[in-house]
Amino acid sequence: MANPPDDLLDHDYDGIREFDNPLPKWWLYMFYGGIVAALVYVPYYHFGPGPLPREQWAEDMTAWWQQHPPPELADHAELEAMAEDPAFVAAGQATFNVRCMSCHAIDGGGLVGPNLTDEFTIYGQQRDQIVAVIFHGTKNGMLAWKDQLGLEEIYQVGAYVHSLRGTTPAKPKAPDGVPIVDPTPEIAATAQP
């Protein structure tokens, strides 16, 4: 490859003079190629039929969720039947002690997360509501455990959390949420179809 000529430009700025060396051809080809690509890309994707990356992602995610719908969680009656087995609840306690105690304390009294033993609730105290919170997480910082625990493990933890209500933790956290109001038997009986 031949060396470019060392031609000095005619201007002088504070005693500094510069050479007039041309840019390498490969650099110029890439620069002009980028301009041509932009002239095609912008009209096609921003004003034409081409989908933008965020639109393509949304379309792909919609198709994925149609092929992989989230499981339908068990209802209150099914969860209550599962919780009648002491081994089922004990398995939930073992998982709770590993996964949940860092936020809710080993006895459910609450640390970063709310107290699970008192008569207050943020998202509901029914078995299906507890399982939904464990499965989906919350906007206030609780992790959605659906990607880390199996469905049966989530049901087990939900059964154990439900059993914590009314227990006495060593250092209970101040109440969060609204007071739990259990329906009286007469109201509950009339509410059922």
From TrEMBL:
Membrane-crossing segments per the record: 26-47
One Gene Ontology term of the molecular function aspect: electron transfer activity
Pfam families in alphabetical order: Cytochrome_CBB3, FixP_N
Sequence ranges assigned to domain Cytochrome c in this UniProt record: 87-165
Annotated InterPro entries: CcoP_N (IPR032858), CcoP_N_sf (IPR038414), Cyt_c-like_dom (IPR009056), Cyt_c-like_dom_sf (IPR036909), Cytochrome_c_Oxidase_Subunit (IPR050597)
Stored PROSITE patterns: CYTC
Keywords per UniProt: Heme, Iron, Membrane, Metal-binding, Transmembrane, Transmembrane helix
Disordered, as annotated region: 168-193
PANTHER family xrefs: CBB3-TYPE CYTOCHROME C OXIDASE SUBUNIT FIXP
Protein name per its UniProtKB record: Cbb3-type cytochrome c oxidase subunit CcoP2
Organism from which the protein derives: Enhygromyxa salina
Gene name linked to the record: ccoP2
